[in-house]
Each structure stands twice: as structure tokens, then as C-alpha cells.
Amino acid sequence: MNHQEETGLPLDGNAAAGLLRELFALDVTVAQVTCNCCGAVAQVGETRVYGGVMGAIFRCPNCDSVAMRLVHTPVGTWLDMRGSRCLFTPSVER
Ligand SMILES: [Zn+2]
Fold this sequence. Notes:
The chain is mainly β.
């Protein structure tokens, strides 16, 4: 029985470090993003990207709405996923 099962209390996000490392260590261009506007599913690599030095805007290849925004700033990197319903990464053979 683990801590959560014993206490019923949630753990902090650090407990999911291993899960998050698996997600973000992958080539995200092959991940499938679901557009929040039209529901289309496309690989991140298939989105239309408008970008510059500071980051990129990823637009849905079906309806052209903004699916994701990525911005590098001096204090860190922001990934805004409000335009996406979900991001799916297929399993990788290990
Ligand atoms: Zn769309």
C-alpha cells in the first residue's frame, strides 16, 4: 500500500516526476494534438508553425486556430496548451 492509499491525501507534483520525464523526453513532433476548436487530431509536426527567436505558435492544420504557444523568456519556458484538448504520445519500443 502506498502513501496515497494509506492516507487518502494527494501527493505533490514531484511524485509524478518519472511520468513527466517519460512524456517530455520524447520527440514531441510525433505526439498527436487534438484541436480544442474543431476536434481535429494531428501530429505536432503537422501543425502550422509561426515563430521567431522567442518561441512559436502552433496552429491547427484543419481550422487554423491556435493549438499551442511556446515562449522562451529569460526566466524560463512557457507552454500554453489552452487551444488543445489533449496531447497523446504513442508508446515507444524500449
Ligand atoms: Zn482545429
